[in-house]
Structures are given as C-alpha cells and as structure tokens.
C-alpha cells in the first residue's frame, strides 16, 4: 500500500517568535448522487494515479439471509460471478483482469460487496457489467450446483478440516447471541445449501439485489459528473423492488456467563475464545469499545499480548477485537462481540486462562489506562485508517458502507475525531459496563485425546 502523503504531516514553528497553524485535518472528498430507482452513488476523486477502485455494496449479508437457508448470502455471492444472458461466465473477469485490474467479492454480517480496481479506461465497461448482473443473472440448475459445490469445498477447507475452524466466530456467536439473525452460521450448512433451489436464488436476487438496496462507491482518477452520467445511463432503467423489512436484531446484554467445551481433532494445543456483547454502532460507547479492543488485543504491543503471552506466559498467542474476525468499527450495522481468541499450554486449564483475561479487563474498569498507552493505541488506529483510505478500493468500499448504513458517506470524516476524543474514562465505562463476567461467553476447544494404544504413524 502506498505511503500516506501529507495525511499525518506535522508543522513545526520556524522560530520562537513565529506561530504556524497546524494543517487542517485531511478530509476524504465525497459527492453523492441518488437515482430515481433508489440506487445511490458515492464518488471520491483522487488524481494521484490513473486508476480507480469500485465497490458495489448490497445491504444483505449473513444477518439478513432467509431462515432455514444458512449460508445463502454467501452462496449468492458466488452466483454473482456465474454470468448473465448478455455477459456469459468469464466475461466479467476477462474485461477487468485483461486490462490489468482485479476483482473480488465478500459476504459479511450486514452486507455483501463486489470490489474491483482497474485503469480508468475500464470504468465504462465495468459499470455496464455491474448493471448487467444487477438486472439479472444466468439462473440455472447447473450454475447453482457448481457454486454450491464451490461453497462446500470452501467450508471444508476453512472450517471443517483445519485446526480450530472458525469456532471463535461461528460457535461463539451461536453461544453469545439469542436471535437467529445474529447467532446462526452464515458460512453455511451443507443441509441448507443442498436444499436451496433455483427459484429461491432467483427470488433472493429480486428481493435484495435491487438498485434501491445498493450503493456504489467509486474512488480514483475519475470525473464526478462523468461517473454520475455513466451510472444514470447504465442503471436508471433497472426497476426498484420491495425489499423485505429488516428484522429487529438488537439484543440486551447477557445476564449470566455462558460456557461451552468442544474438542478438535486437528488442533495440537487447546484454544479459548471469549466474547462480550458490544453496544450498537450508533451508541456513544461503540468507538470507545473499538479502542478498548485494540488496546487489549491489537497486536504485539497490546495488553493481553504483553501481559499474558510475554509476561505471565498464560497464553501462547492472542488476537481479536470488536467484530473480529470479519467486522471492525466501520463495517458493522448491528450487534457484535469483542472477541479474544488465544491458544494456551496443554498443561493449563481454560478457567485459569479466562480468569487471567477477565482480570486484565477489570484492571481497565477499575484504574483506566495511562495516557501514553491510550495515545499509542489511538495513534495506531488512526494510522491504519489513513493508510486504508489511501487505497482506492478500500476508500470506495468504506464510503459505500457509510452511505449504506448511515445515509451519509461524508460521516467517515468524523471517524478520526471520534477516535481522538476517546478518554481513559470512556474505556473504564465500557469495560465496566460490557466486559463483565455476566455478559461473557467463552468456549474451551481442546485437542482430541488419542485413544489408549494409538500411536502417530507419521514418518520418524
């Protein structure tokens, strides 16, 4: 990723008698246009390189997929690359990658996005292709069967046949949350995937992949007026649809701790996942919670790494954060967990490990954090944010999400100030309110103990 030029510049006084004003905070330029059919476009001009990034965000993800069809949003993400009657499978990739660009898609809790980066010469054909697959897809039994198998293999590789799978995400959410929308496994179950029909796929597209349920973000060496013109040209004729009402996904904090013990045939050492329900993204406590997550588990300088990995050696490794591993402070639109995932020594026990984690949290609740530690944490978060926004695809995606979730793409410019304003008192309040024993869910995942007389037959 490119170095962020001028974003974190510091201006020093040239002489004792001269006062030099600090430079204004860097603001991401944004322009928003809404079509008559409800499609919204956000443009951020950046003429530093002759390229652009685009993100087409649809406001449907794991949380909003149909009940009884776990993994449907994820399956549909794959279906979007199966082609259309006018642009058969492979056309999209050839147009983008043949011109030196790249494209991808991903499914999250509250949205699915389709991203691409390319030279500016590819903007017009890319917008046409995105409009084409928003209008319709190649709905066929063969395509559905093909992508169903692809998703199944992805689940085998990423979940079923690897150490720990995604238990710190899927299983921990199922334990901590009560509502199906928040608790079910959005990655997908084989039973539900097998039950999906072509008619259901077509209905899902009609319900959620409508222009009034989408936001397009574009950042790069483009002209705002020209982008708006192209979008009107390609998307205006696509009719809006009645999208299903968004369910109430809010949940109260838990009133008593929840625990679960699992075994893992692929793991060599035990692991523990701890999660606390967090406030809604619109809450005043949400950004302080994100800062607290970074302070606790954000890399090698974090409290839990320094205190429990390097210090007391209770853990072998640790990671996590608010919404981890799929979410963060900018891409959530509903309930989340502050997650701590760690591996620990086989001769230790989970209760001791969880107690040590809880003790570290309670230190913050009782004493706050030193100013230098808080400032270092906030500086790291701001540096990461600015570096991310320098990436054109990342910026396009973030702006599209802000528009989709808040109807105000420019609100992203308030994020640095909200981070900078977090105080030690904020962290004390968040830790004392949310990171309590009563609101805690935890899973101990231990390796399968070999049966008596069983020996490893690996090469000696």
What this model shows, in words?
The protein is an alpha+beta fold and 460 residues long. It has two domains: 31-235, Metalloenzyme, LuxS/M16 peptidase-like (Cytochrome Bc1 Complex, Chain A, domain 1, 2-Layer Sandwich); 258-447, Cytochrome Bc1 Complex, Chain A, domain 1. It has 16 helices and eleven strands. It has helices at 72-79, 91-98, 123-135, 141-160, 170-176, 180-183, 190-195, 198-208, 224-235, 286-297, 303-311, 350-367, 371-390, 392-406, 415-420, 424-434, and strands spanning 31-34, 40-45, 51-58, 102-107, 112-119, 214-220, 258-264, 271-277, 315-322, 337-344, 440-447. Helix 10 (286-297) crosses helix 16. It is globular, with a radius of gyration of 24 Å. 42% of the residues are buried. The model is unreliable at 1-23 and 456-460 (pLDDT under 50).
Please outline the helices and strands.
Blueprint (H helix, E strand, L loop, with lengths): L30 E4 L5 E6 L5 E8 L13 H8 L11 H8 L3 E6 L4 E8 L3 H13 L5 H20 L9 H7 L3 H4 L6 H6 L2 H11 L5 E7 L3 H12 L22 E7 L6 E7 L8 H12 L5 H9 L3 E8 L14 E8 L5 H18 L3 H20 L1 H15 L8 H6 L3 H11 L5 E8 L13
Parallel strand pairs: 2-6, 7-11
Antiparallel strand pairs: 1-2, 3-5, 3-6, 4-5, 8-10, 8-11, 9-10
Helix pairs in contact: 1-4, 3-9, 10-16, 12-16
Fraction of residues in H or I helices:
25-40%
- Low-confidence stretches at least 5 residues in length (pLDDT < 50)? 1-23, 456-460
Global morphology: globular
Which value, in Å, is the CA radius of gyration? 24 Å
Structure keywords:
single chain; 6-stranded mixed beta sheet; alpha+beta; 5-stranded mixed beta sheet; about 450 residues; 2 domains; Cytochrome Bc1 Complex, Chain A, domain 1
